[in-house]
Write a structure and sequence with these properties.
Elements (H helix, E strand, L loop, with lengths): L5 E4 L8 E7 L28 E9 L2 E9 L7 H18 L4 E5 L7 H12 L16 E4 L4 H26 L7 H15 L2 E5 L1 H6 L3 H6 L8 E8 L6 E6 L1 E5 L19 H15 L5 E11 L11 E3 L5 E3 L7 H14 L4 E6 L3 H7 L3 E6 L1 H14 L2 E4 L17 E2 L7 H10 L7 E6 L1 H5 L16 H11 L2
Parallel strand pairs: 1-6, 2-4, 2-5, 5-6, 9-11, 9-14, 10-11, 13-17, 14-18, 15-16
Antiparallel strand pairs: 3-4, 7-8, 8-11, 12-13, 15-18
């Protein structure tokens, strides 16, 4: 979908219709090279409050018409990069509403990645999903001007561009209606994008899933007209020291089955494949960036529909591993498709497994819509939390409290797929842990809040955020060293 063209220059040479955003460290202290702007624009002050954007000048300059905004980042309660992203997104909107022909952001690259923050805000903040609009979007081009630090900014430009493109690919598939982004449609899109990124792709259809005894995936998707798929992507650096397997829940639309989801928020259930989007497009980014790691990504895709063939509460499913599950709730379907995929992952003998899923409403009750839950290996969880803070995809470690396994017991199967209202995110993680070998380091990411609820996302109200792509990619880079 459309996003702004972003380029890097060392100096702002005003053109007719330009809007420029001058970034300050404090109200009077510039955070840019004074030689990077015309001398007439070097004496402005910034707004009194951090994170505000104000018009410092609007009118003619050297026979062209320009608008100059100023902003300042002096806020001790938040990181500068976070504030900078928000003000750049605001400036994009204001430049667009004032019919400006270009937005120029003047700043220094800085040791803390201010240039990367501007680039991210430009590419993600100008994103539009206009596939079904008669009037197509024309995002305003954006230029980052970095003066003496332009070379530093240029070094980050190309790798960041590859990553941000995959974030927007994830947003596209999540914004797509469930009727077209069904298991077959998503599998075809994943296959096309995966091959383009350098992944080796396999797609398991219904027949292959039956042969592999992926009965849990098949049960969840049994009631839908379009039957389940599983997409497996592989990438292998010859210099790899570790094998990372990513597993992503791909419920292309979740009605809740016979335990139907409430009408409020049902339209957002097209985003119940947020885990699949995060893991698959992180895998694409990893391949494009040629990280020194061996990688496999596994995305089970199913639609949880209601029909005469749909699976029922009380059903008992024999999963691929041989373990049986009593279905206590058909709306706890994500963990069912994941356990078959985790069993496939186990056969690959990985060093680390990371699964991601829009799994439980309980995660959102506990952590809200900005923070994902992480369970599993303590050291890896702490690594991901630090990475998440740096990438503005925040996670908080939750306990795998084993006594709660009692809540998943049933006399008629090996395990039940729900444990009741209390500790719902924890019992879901405990359920999944039963399919992960003890010797394999494992993380489970429950991202129901940040992946699905879009009313307060930084890059477009009502649009998918693509949560997890940046953090998972950075995590792979960290463990590959």
């Amino acid at each position: 979908m459309p996003t702004a063209k972003y380029t890097v220059e060392s100096r702002w040479k005003p053109k007719n219709g330009d809007a420029a955003l001058l970034v300050f460290a404090t109200k009077k202290k510039q955070l840019f090279d004074l030689t990077a702007v015309p001398a007439d624009f070097s004496g402005f002050n910034a707004p009194k409050d951090a994170g505000k954007v104000q018009v410092a000048y609007a009118g003619a300059f050297d026979k062209v018409s320009v608008v100059v905004f100023t902003t300042q980042l002096d806020d001790k309660s938040r990181r500068r990069e976070e504030i900078l992203k928000k003000v750049v997104v605001e400036a994009i909107g204001r430049a667009d509403s004032e019919n400006c022909k270009r937005l120029v952001v003047v700043c220094e690259a800085g040791s803390k990645g201010l240039d990367r923050a501007i680039h991210e805000a430009a590419v993600l903040g100008s994103y539009k999903f206009d596939k079904y609009l008669k009037k197509k979007a024309k995002p305003v081009p954006i230029v980052g001007v970095f003066g003496k630090t332009t070379v530093e900014a240029g070094k980050n430009f190309r790798p960041d561009a590859k990553l941000l493109a995959e974030v927007n690919n994830a947003r596209d598939i999540l914004n797509e209606p469930g009727s077209t982004a069904n298991p077959a449609g998503v599998a075809a899109t994943f296959r096309r994008h995966g091959i383009a990124a350098g992944l080796q792709i396999q797609v398991w259809n219904e027949s292959k899933l039956k042969k592999e005894k992926c009965n849990a995936i098949l049960a969840v998707g049994r009631g839908a007209a379009v039957k389940p798929r599983m997409v497996i992507g592989k990438y292998g650096s010859t210099r790899a020291k570790k094998h990372l397997v990513l597993v992503g829940k791909g419920l292309t639309f979740d009605t809740g089955g016979y335990c139907i989801t409430g009408g409020e928020g049902m339209d957002a259930m097209k985003m119940d494949m947020g885990g699949a989007a995060a893991t698959f497009y992180a895998a694409c980014a990893i391949a494009r960036l040629k990280l020194k790691i061996r990688l496999t990504v596994i995305t089970p895709l199913a639609q949880n529909a209601i029909s005469s063939e749909a699976y029922l509460p009380g059903d008992i499913i024999r999963t691929r591993s041989g373990r049986t599950v009593e279905v206590g709730n058909t709306d706890a379907e994500g963990r069912l498709v994941l356990v078959d995929a985790l069993d496939v992952a186990k056969d690959l003998k990985p060093d680390i497994i990371v699964d991601a899923a829009t799994l439980t409403g309980a995660q959102m009750v506990a952590l809200g819509t900005d923070i994902g839950a992480v369970y599993g290996d303590d050291r890896l969880a702490k690594t991901l939390m630090k990475i998440g803070e740096e990438s503005d995809e925040n996670f908080w470690q939750m306990p795998l409290y084993k006594p709660y396994n009692e809540m998943l017991k049933t006399p008629i199967a090996d395990v039940k797929n729900v444990g009741g209202r209390a500790a719902g995110s924890i019992t879901a993680a405990l359920f999944l842990s039963g399919w992960v070998p003890d010797k394999v380091r494992w993380l489970h990411l429950d991202i129901a809040g940040p992946a699905v609820f879009t009313d307060k996302v930084p890059y477009g109200k009502g649009l998918a955020r693509g949560f997890g792509v940046k953090a998972i990619t950075a995590f792979a880079e960290k463990i590959s060293r």
